[in-house]
């Protein structure tokens, strides 16, 4: 419920404060007094577009502030908009404040916390329904029609819808899990093929420890075999065999040893030198033997060189993929072997999920059919009631219909062999259709243009849906457009009846409506020192009598109109 509205520096308003109450609150005043500015101000805190031209001349910005009381249910809905923020206070109050400057820039607060405009618009949908020339009308939002119809249907349809919602949510979740598992299975199969290829490549290579080092050494020797062989042969000749007119190192050592033997008896030290020379001779023989053995093993086989190079290419290719060393390649092979054994196709779980999805689809299908059938019956009831209400409001040629259609969808739910788009509320797409005048085709409710016409249609709908509509505050602007005295009584009575269950704020020119109010506010325009401004005051007693009389006969108030006004108020 909107309890207090504060407006500052908006259009012709300097500062204006209004305290509304439960029941019917009416705003009256002469034409052009600025009644609609009050409605525009409410619209501003509901998140509607506002032009910077609305800022009062000479001021920097306009400010509109509203204090709302909300019920426990409304509090739950509103707080769910942003779970990280306490939108409604513990005492179930909420202050919305919006400031618009000359540049058209907005600042919005909810309980002193800055919020963006979209949050304000979401909150506004739970607080106020505005009918008339402004746009904030819940009944023009097609998405609300299905909820209104279901609430009108009562507990039976709401219980089935709750069951459908639970089944639908479970169905969507299991389908999501099944899809993820199937995708993962496809990915796993691709992964298995890839891992098997890698493991086979490593296994077929049959690598041995340090094989690469050994082969690299062999490759080096095979590539330089001729050079090594030449050097070895030269060494054998020089050290052991000698040649034509050339003595070998062995011959020279033997000759020196023989000469030393001739003088060894002269001095023990010479004998020691001769023994050392013999020792060198023995080492030389061993070394020459090693050279001969090494030389005999040198392989000039080019075929072997080719084999070694090919083997090294295989090893180096594996290194480029799986590790820098043979040890790392082996470790990687063990790793992918373990991964292969760990991959699970989860075929059993897939089978279980498919059965669960099929079972839930059957439940959803049955519930959707039942709910759709119930909605068709409820729709006919609403149509009759709305036509009856419109007839009371002198719209005898108006036709009203609840459109219920189903949309085909290959990914939807199977009903009688056909696939239909399904949502948490079922398969029905519901929209209120209207034909205000004889000969006009039925059109969506949102297509109605006339402000007074749409206000009366909304009044008719609200009259029959007031029990199930959850929005606490209804605002009617231009509801009495083109309405005479006799119809005014009907409109006034309907507004009064609605106000028994909802707070109603109504801008009106009809005294019949003003007489039904719990609170009556009079708006007037004043000019002081070449400056125009609007003020508002609550009226009762003789002031209210005078205003009702003015509404009856304009500014020509007579004793007869005064008596008529008193009589209307007494009724």
Which segments are poorly predicted (pLDDT under 50) over 5 or more consecutive residues? none
Strand order of the largest sheet: 2-1-4-5-6-7
CA-based shape: elongated
Largest sheet: 6 strands, antiparallel
What's the architecture of the domain at 1-137 and 472-538 in CATH terms? Answer: 3-Layer(aba) Sandwich
Rg estimate, integer Å: 50 Å
CATH topology of the domain at 1-137 and 472-538: Rossmann fold
CATH class of the domain at 1-137 and 472-538: Alpha Beta
Say which CATH homologous superfamily of the domain at 1-137 and 472-538 is assigned.
P-loop containing nucleotide triphosphate hydrolases
| SS class | alpha+beta
Number of helices: 17
Beta-strand level of the residues, as a percent range?
Answer: 15-25%
Helix content: 40-55%
């Amino acid at each position: 419920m909107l309890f207090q509205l504060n407006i500052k520096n908006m259009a012709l308003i300097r500062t204006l404060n209004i305290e509304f109450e439960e029941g019917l609150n009416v705003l009256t005043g002469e034409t052009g007094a600025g009644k609609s500015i009050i409605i525009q101000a409410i619209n501003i805190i509901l998140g509607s577009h506002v032009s910077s031209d609305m800022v009062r001349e000479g001021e920097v910005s306009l400010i509109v502030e509203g204090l709302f009381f909300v019920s426990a249910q409304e509090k739950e809905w509103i707080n769910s908009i942003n779970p990280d923020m306490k939108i409604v206070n513990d005492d179930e109050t909420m202050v919305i404040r919006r400031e618009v400057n000359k540049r058209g820039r907005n600042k919005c607060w909810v309980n002193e916390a800055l919020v963006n405009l979209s949050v304000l618009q979401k909150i506004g949908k739970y607080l106020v329904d505005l009918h008339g020339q402004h746009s904030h009308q819940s009944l023009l939002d097609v998405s609300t029609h299905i909820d209104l119809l279901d609430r009108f249907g009562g507990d039976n349809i709401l219980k089935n819808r709750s069951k459908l919602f639970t089944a639908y949510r479970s169905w969507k979740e299991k389908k999501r899990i099944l899809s993820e598992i199937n995708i993962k299975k496809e990915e796993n199969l691709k992964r298995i093929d890839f891992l098997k290829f890698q493991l086979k490549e490593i296994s077929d290579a049959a690598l041995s420890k340090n094989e690469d080092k050994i082969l690299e050494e062999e490759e080096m020797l095979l590539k330089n075999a001729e050079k090594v062989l030449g050097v070895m042969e030269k060494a054998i000749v020089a050290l052991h065999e000698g040649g034509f007119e050339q003595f070998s190192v062995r011959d020279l050592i033997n000759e020196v040893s023989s000469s030393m033997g001739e003088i060894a008896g002269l001095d023990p030290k010479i004998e020691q030198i001769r023994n050392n020379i013999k020792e060198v001779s023995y080492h030389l023989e061993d070394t020459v033997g090693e050279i001969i053995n090494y030389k005999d093993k040198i392989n000039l086989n080019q075929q072997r060189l080719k084999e070694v190079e090919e083997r090294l290419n295989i090893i180096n290719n594996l290194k480029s993929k799986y590790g820098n060393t043979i040890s790392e390649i082996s470790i990687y092979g063990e790793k992918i072997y373990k991964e292969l054994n760990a991959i699970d196709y989860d075929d059993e779980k897939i089978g279980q999920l498919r059965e669960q999805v099929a079972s839930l689809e059957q439940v959803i299908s049955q519930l959707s059919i039942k709910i759709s059938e119930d909605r068709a019956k409820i729709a006919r009831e609403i149509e009759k009631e709305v036509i009856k209400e419109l007839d009371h409001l002198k719209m005898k040629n108006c036709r009203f219909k609840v459109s219920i259609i189903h949309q085909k969808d290959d990914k939807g739910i199977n009903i009688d062999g056909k696939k239909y788009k399904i949502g948490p509320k079922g398969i029905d797409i519901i929209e209120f259709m209207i034909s205000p005048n004889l000969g006009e085709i039925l059109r969506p409710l949102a297509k109605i243009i006339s402000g007074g016409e749409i206000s009366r249609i909304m009044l008719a709908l609200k009259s029959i849906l007031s029990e199930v509509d959850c929005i606490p505050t209804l605002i009617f602007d231009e509801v009495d457009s083109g309405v005479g005295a006799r119809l005014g009584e009907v409109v006034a009575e309907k507004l009064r009846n609605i106000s028994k269950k909802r707070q109603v704020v109504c801008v009106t020119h009809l005294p019949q409506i003003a007489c039904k109010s719990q609170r009556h506010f009079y708006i007037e325009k004043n000019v002081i020192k070449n400056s125009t401004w609007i003020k508002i005051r609550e009226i009762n007693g003789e002031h209210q009598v005078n205003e009702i009389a003015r509404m009856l006969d304009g500014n020509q108030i007579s004793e007869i109109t005064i008596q008529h006004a008193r009589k209307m108020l007494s009724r």
